Amino acid sequence: MNNEIIKEQYSTADNLDLRISIHDKYSVNRQGFGNWIFFHYQISEGMSVLELGCGNGDMWLGKDDVIGRCSRLVLSDLSEGMLNATKEKLKDHNGIEYRLIDIQDIPFPDDEFDVIIANMMLYHVPDLSKGLEEVRRVLKDNGTFYCATYGENGMTEYIELLFDDFPISRACNYNFTLQNGKEKLMRYFPDVQRLLYEDALEVTDVEDMIDYIYSLSGFSDLRDLPRNILRSVLEQNMQNGVLRVPKEYGMFIAR
Fold this sequence. Notes:
The protein has helices spanning 3-9, 14-26, 33-39, 64-69, 80-89, 128-138, 155-162, 181-185, 206-215, 220-223, 227-236, and strands spanning 47-52, 70-77, 97-100, 113-117, 139-150, 192-197, 200-203, 243-246, 249-254. By secondary structure, it is α/β, with parallel strands linked by helices. The protein has a single domain, classed as Rossmann fold, CATH 3.40.50. Strand 1 (47-52), helix 4 (64-69) and strand 2 form a beta-alpha-beta unit.
């Protein structure tokens, strides 16, 4: 996926907000993936932090104590629309820097940051090797890189299986997953830890699931199907009024 397609998909926060909402509404694990990720951050007083692909900024809401202990916090995204949404949500924090940044060309000197974060975005990077090289370059020698991603046995694969009788192209992007991410990271970091987040969706209103499918650019063939067809297939796979959708999410901590 090239950067222009990524910018179009994430030009505004609307689709991302919709996808987040289905997780908030139906996730079995009530801790929340974002809270779980944040729990594993080790950000001490005076650390400099860069987030690449900050999205809509939800991750930082209510994290005033962490924001306060950063000597420098740079939140960046490839999309101006996403960055504007983040600025609006965090407008009460005057010390945050907001930058339009492509991970493949990070505009900072070597050894600049103690912590770098890149959640749910590395699989979009056209030249992942270049992106990871840049992360390693601007990260201090004793710094930490946190990157969350999905696995290869989650929601997308489940949805594709449900519609296996239809002539749809595969939407899965396996550029950086829980299965192959460690190997890719270890080319640049000697210490890589993988953590898994246990969860699933239990959907009781299939209309929400249809909206979710329509929000994903990768499901172009499914998005062309009439809503009543999607509804029929999803309802056929409900048990006792619940559509159980597997999720496979986790994160890597690289040093």
